[in-house]
């Protein structure tokens, strides 16, 4: 029987197979940031150890950084202390560190690919659930806990049970105004926020193949939001073209050799998956969430569903989510008020996302009731945006291009949504309080965010922008 893409990469990295189904898995690239690494570094220190292979560890500050006035000292003492500790820990262990003010600093899952650290066929981990992003390159990439971060520091290996496999195929052609974010929100709305639990997902089909690398990263980024361990896409020419020439990509003869190996990274025709889903692109429209988990999503023109057919804890949690959001079953999302718009995060903070938003709002004006945070995912993204004049387009429309960081994706820095306020966010999670205590988050793609930003309410971008 043939092998899946996942099996090929996983099996090639198994150092030892243990009883009970667990594997000692070798890790090619370990990404770290300032939030989940301090305790792991402390554990190493207490054991008299250093990081085993610092050259395979990449460090960048992202969660706690401000997105304005980065040249000034960080105001919050806890954040400042964490960033300073991170810098010391990296220096003591010989790890290259992209701290605040460094030209390569940015959100960890954006920095890795743009510098060429992320490559097909790798195993990649980080103390961050959205490590699944890197699976877009045909890598086995997943988030780990702090004790596991320490394990990788000490040994460059990790102890893991092998997940089951799932393939999600999306065929057909996407309609106007439908983005990669809409595709993945649609998938999660269909299989639920727990539908991928215990699995590694391979995304396949005509639609996935048609996506750019940045769009593929958006899809794999949110695979974790349906409960999956991670997501991945088989590498192809789109992948090779993106990686080639990047700072840490192979060069010369090594590049040719690498590509020959990468071309073998696909699921064999007779490979068997534990579960399969197939979706039609024609059924996908711009999406918006209405509840408090990413599975509570709907097409922009639809109506909020009811709890009919639900029972027990499912019914309780559904009703609680609508109560928290201040919504009712049967209502339209179109026309609902919006207070904040956030464009950024490891899901939609890349240059293509900023281009999409800027081109949509060009020649229009931000609605007076909207506070907007447009946050590039890295300094490289920020510099590109300025070189292309996106900052000027945004400024003319009443928006400001901020500085890189995780920003309003999560309430760990100054960019918090106030209690009771409604936010259309291009990030990945809409849990209660995710963007700030009492904040009400509606997940969407850059075009739906742009439509909300210029109208002040939820609106169909196809109508607003005549798509």
Please describe what this structure looks like.
This protein is an alpha/beta fold. The chain has three domains: 5-162 and 237-258, Aconitase, domain 3; 164-235 and 266-283, Aconitase, Domain 2 (3-Layer(aba) Sandwich); 287-464, Aconitase, domain 3, CATH 3.30.499. The chain has helices at residues 5-12, 38-46, 77-92, 108-114, 146-155, 180-191, 206-210, 213-221, 237-243, 252-262, 312-325, 345-348, 351-361, 379-387, 390-396, 446-455, 461-464, and strands spanning 14-17, 22-26, 29-32, 57-60, 97-98, 123-126, 140-143, 157-161, 164-171, 199-204, 230-232, 275-280, 287-289, 297-299, 340-343, 371-374, 422-425, 440-443. The strands form five sheets. A five-stranded parallel beta sheet has the order 5-4-3-6-7, sandwiched between helices. A four-stranded parallel beta sheet has the order 11-10-9-12. It has a four-stranded parallel beta sheet with strand order 16-15-17-18, covered by helices on one side. β4, α3 (77-92) and β5 form a beta-alpha-beta unit. α2 crosses α5 (146-155), α6 (180-191) runs parallel beside α8 (213-221) and α13 (351-361) runs parallel beside α15. The chain is globular, with a radius of gyration of 21 Å.
